[in-house]
What we know:
The complex is a heterodimer. Chain A is about 70% helix and about 0% strand. By secondary structure, chain A is mainly α. Chain A has 3 domains: about 1-55, no CATH class; about 70-100, no CATH class; about 100-310, MetI-like (MetI-like fold), CATH 1.10.3720.10. Chain B has a domain at about 65-90 and about 105-110 and about 185-295: P-loop containing nucleotide triphosphate hydrolases (Rossmann fold), CATH 3.40.50. Chain B contains 8 helices and 10 strands. In chain B, helix 3 crosses helix 4 (about 140-155), helix 3 runs parallel beside helix 5 and helix 4 (about 140-155) packs across helix 5. The model of chain B is unreliable at about 1-30 (pLDDT under 50).
Amino acid sequence: MADTLAAVPAVPATGTPAGTVPAGTATGTPAGTPAVSPRGDVPTADDRATNFFRVAAGVRSSALPRLSLLLRRTAALALLAGLWETLPRLGVVDRVFAPPLSEVLVAWYDLLVGGQLVEHFQASLIRSLSGFALAIALTIPLGLAIGWYRPVADFLSPVLELFRNTSAVALLPVFILIFGLGEPSKIIFVFYACSWPILLNTISGVRTVEPLLVKSARSMGLSPFRLFQKVILPAAVPTIFTGVRLAGAYSILTLLFAEMVGAKAGLGYLIQDAQFSFRIPDMYAGIITISVLGLLFNLLLVTVERRFSTWRTTS
Amino acid sequence: MTVTQTQTQTQTRNRTRIRTENPAQDRPERQAKIVIRDVGKVFRIRGTDRPFIAVDGIDLDVRDGEFLTLVGPSGCGKSTLLDLIAGLTAPTTGEILIDGEAVTGPGLDRGIVFQQYALFPWRTALANIEFGLEAKAVPRKERRERARHYLDLVGLTGFEHRYPHELSGGMRQRVAIARSLAFDPDVLLMDEPFAALDAQTRESLQEELLRIWEKTNKTIVFITHGIDEAVYLGQRVAVMTSRPGRIKRVIDIAFESREGDLRADPRFGAYRHEIWTLLRDEVAAAQEQERTIG
Ligand SMILES: Nc1ncnc2c1ncn2[C@@H]1O[C@H](COP(=O)(O)OP(=O)(O)OP(=O)(O)O)[C@@H](O)[C@H]1O
Ligand SMILES: [Mg+2]
């Protein structure tokens, strides 16, 4: 019941927990990251994925098992790099379409020195951060209101259910029509895509607060407002953060799409343009950049998340 | 003599007392702190329109400063009764008075300790204890001091900054008790607070609770499944029937002195046996009920 926006019987229950990928959003992220229960400490796929970086950065203790873990994790990456380098050279794959890694890195370095990379990177970052920040600023309050006030939920649910099942990609032409080809349409597009995981997780975070805690707070005579401030909100923070982290991934993934459809700058444009003009190493350089950006962004969000929920971590 | 007869007699006795003595007018030596008058609670069960009677016709008064323990078969409505006294739910019939005034909602004059440690996981031990004080708008500095005082009282000095998940079950329960004591309620409502603890921890917490009770003179209603615990802690033990729960009998526990090992006192065994006998039939009835329902 907490999964859907409200118990609207007319809408087919998708039965998806918080953090669901809105239908049609093109992503390759770990979808369906489970909404973590207030006290549970289930490491998500994302946590495990990022663990590598924490180990690599030496954040954790440097015990021997950690070192062997580090080796195991880097091994796969090294293998990938090795294959990427050798297979094209051996002629197993077509060098033209898949140049060896070293050539790609050289192209990347040239782009960096030439200043283009920074320019495109900056354009993309500003767009995705704007959309992402906008989504956080507007959607969390909306989600809180929907989760907390039944009438708001009843009123908005049908509309939200409808939009939730409308792909962001399908709406991009509409955004372009209304906001033009410039920055606003891209930011709105990212904002739209980012809003859903945040909204759904916020709602579910508010609705799934341990009833005993609410009861306990009520027994101490807390007013509804104080109850919300002192119990519901802190209890919902971890779940909200799961949504924020998913949104962070979406902000980059969806922006890339928008930049490929129509833009004069940005990493998506770089990749697309490089492909059109057959600068294949540049294309791969763009792809690597976007992957690293995504990883770093997620790493940042995970770090912030940990800050906010120290009370959850066992170990 | 049948169960129903005992029950009816108890009820009649209670009712007459309530009707004849109005605590507000002529103050008897130990006036009733909590008056439960013909209280019933009916739940609606989803998917059926058959009402579910949890407790029915409960009559009981708890004297000011009294330590009353409450025993009864599982599912007979003990927690329901506690919620009603706490004002977390409203009775379907009857009324509950505290100091002669009807309960209309929860308040800081009553503190509850729930069976499951209902601590806020995002707050440290100290901050959990401060919670009720914040609700009471106690200034920050005093809040800190009082929270520390109660943390010491339950023997958790040095654990101020631990989060609940970093505490053992017994420690969590002690924090919960400290939290309820900290805002200084007149009435302490405790729902099987020691049930999940090992024997040693339980005994030491029992001692601590008695000590605190003697010192603070609070009125305590204490639910338990343990007959020993009920006899050991209570000045009176109220025995409930199987669902719909009623008060079957209230037994006065009178020891000549509380010095020495109370559990070795021959009267302890006698009380224990009396309550055990009262409960036996009720537990059997409750189990029968569960079989037919479930
Ligand atoms: N909110 C509720 N809705 C419907 N039924 C309820 C509700 N709360 C309690 N009940 C029912 O009322 C009866 C009494 O419940 P209660 O929790 O008071 O029992 P109890 O005496 O505390 O049992 P135990 O000793 O096992 O804790 C049970 O049969 C339970 O199923
Ligand atoms: Mg109970």
